[in-house]
Design brief:
The protein is mostly helical and 47 residues long. It has 1 helix and no strands.
Length: 47
């Protein structure tokens, strides 16, 4: 796909409330951080 005009290109950022849910994001973030650091530093991820 070729873009010749920069004004035809859009980037949308959403920081909660429209395209994602902040209450679910917090829970998912904690799980992912636990899985990442348990492999890096040892121990069991909190579930």
């Amino acid at each position: 796909m070729t873009r010749n005009n920069s004004y035809e290109f859009s980037i949308l950022f959403d920081d909660g409330g429209v395209m994602n849910d902040n209450t679910l994001r917090g829970i998912q973030w904690q799980k992912l951080v636990g899985e990442f650091f348990s492999h890096k530093y040892g121990g069991e991820p909190y579930r």
